Each structure stands twice: as C-alpha cells, then as structure tokens.
C-alpha cells in the first residue's frame, strides 16, 4: 500500500520537528511538507495534495479554526487538530471538530513527557481514511416534538468523528428528552469544553456528569473522563456512578464500561453507537441487546470512521441501523417503546 501523505501545520518549528519525528517512525506515514502559517499551509495543500493534515489550533495572523473553515469550503480533507490544554485551545478544538476536523490530540506539556502523543500516528492514519464533507451531515435539523411518553433511558457512545454527530443528534432532542448519558473518547479538558459548547446550542440541559446525579428527563450528561468512567447505579431510581478505574477496552471513559453497567437494567435502555475507531462499546452493546435493550448503530455511509459500529454489528449487538440525519429521532422513538420486563 502507498504511504499516507501527511502535511504538518504548526507555527512552532520545535513542535513541527517533534510531530515529524513521531510520524516518520511509522511506516504507514510519509511527511510530504510542513507549514508555519495558514498561508503556507494553503500553498502546501495545493502543492503536495496530502491525504491528511495535522493543524495547530492557535496560530498567528489567521487562526487554525479560520483556516479550517476555508479549507472545508474549498478543499475538504481529513484534519487532526493539535491543541494545548488551555481553555481557549480546548474550546477552539471542539469547535473545529464540529465543523469538520476528524479528531484532536493534545500537545505535550512542557517537561511532562510525550504521553499525549502516544497514539498520534494511529490517530493520523485513521483520520486519513475518514469521510469528510458528506452532504448528509449538512442537512437541515428539526427538533422533535415535546410531551412524548419516554419509557427508556438513552445511552450514546462515540469516538473519532462523533463530536459533530452528537451535536446534530442533540439538536433534534426536545427539552423534555429521555434521560441521556454520553461517553465520548476525549481528554477531560476537551470534554469540559464539549459540554459547555452544547448546552446553549440544544434544548435539553447538557452538563458533565457528576457522581450521584439522578437520571431525569431533559438531562443530558456527558462522561467527564480523566480518571473516571460514566456508569449507572441503583435499583429503580437510577443514578450516575462515576467509577474510578483502569481503562476498559483501551479507553477511559469507556463506552463498554457505561453499556455493561446498564445490563441489569437492559429492558429500560436504548443504546446508540456512533462513528469511531476501534471496538469500544461492541461487547457492551451485545450484552445489552441480549438482555433486552434496544440498540442502534450509525450507518456505514454516514460514519466518519466506520469502526465501532462495524464491530458492534459483527458481534450481533446492533438491532437496527440509521443514517446520522435520522439517528436522533430513531433514538427518541425507541425510547418510547414499552418496557416488557423489568430486571432488577
């Protein structure tokens, strides 16, 4: 196979050298150029025709976000944002993913080692295979009607490419949506920014989950990440359980951890699995479906990376499939279906 052609864009020559050294060590990847400004990046895109780009969030003259907006209008391509963990950097990175960037990685902290770049090569390689500028992602969004009789709890898991998907799904939810828990693979500071961005954009109340929060209609709770998984606890009056534990299925927060914690209440659950790299969520979705939950997978045609839904489907965990523009309404419809049995 031909190597994946990568363009590195960062205003710091030191950071460009670091990214180059990490990516060049992976035989799947070939660095075809570097750029220190948006203008240089524009010229490099036209000259080298890369398969994927790493893009700094904060750059002089024209920000990485402004450049990304122009790029997606005129020459859409896979982009991985590279961000510091400042509040502004995290905010802009989340906005970038909502307008088309495939994923985001955090820059190493000064003197803190290179742990944050440990999966950089895999992220860039996966992004190069991503679908960008799918016209089905840009359709008009309509909010579902309120005052529906929701009988079930909604669980959503996603990873690469799911920031935009989750935003579009929640924009279809009414203010009195079913209780909804979301696990999205991102570093904790990005998840803070993600929740803060979503809350004013959608009708339900969106927040990071806090330990002990009751599951109530109109509430969307996002896994805070860091040291914790977002799980469910309780017998009949279900609550958030922030579980401090090791990674599950290679991730923390883990979709599998959330899904598996809900298995004993499966008949009350609807689980949706979105675009993402890897297999997190597949085992948990299979266990939920086997125990009586309703399950939904995002269609291959509308996934940015068809990894997590594909594996869940192959394992038999996906009962039904939906395109992204129908995913929110389908979840709501499934949450209205009667609960035939209760397992405590």
TrEMBL record:
Keyword Transmembrane helix among UniProt keywords: no
Positions annotated as active site in the UniProt record: 159, 185, 280
Protein name in UniProt: Protein-glutamate methylesterase/protein-glutamine glutaminase
Record-annotated membrane-spanning stretches: none
InterPro entries xref list: CheB-like, CheB_C, CheY-like_superfamily, Sig_transdc_resp-reg_Me-estase, Sig_transdc_resp-reg_receiver
Protein's gene: cheB
Pfam families referenced in this protein's UniProt entry, alphabetically: CheB_methylest, Response_reg
EC number(s) given by UniProt: 3.1.1.61, 3.5.1.44
Primary location class: cytoplasm
Family annotation (Gene3D superfamilies): 3.40.50.2300, Methylesterase CheB, C-terminal domain
Keyword list, A-Z: Chemotaxis, Cytoplasm, Hydrolase, Phosphoprotein
Catalytic activity from the UniProt record: [protein]-L-glutamate 5-O-methyl ester + H2O = L-glutamyl-[protein] + methanol + H(+); L-glutaminyl-[protein] + H2O = L-glutamyl-[protein] + NH4(+)
Keyword GTP-binding appears in the UniProt entry: no
CDD domains found in the cross-reference section: CheB_Rec (cd16432), REC_CheB-like (cd17541)
One GO biological process term: chemotaxis
Residue span(s) of domain CheB-type methylesterase: 151-332
Signal peptide: none
The species this protein was found in: Celeribacter halophilus
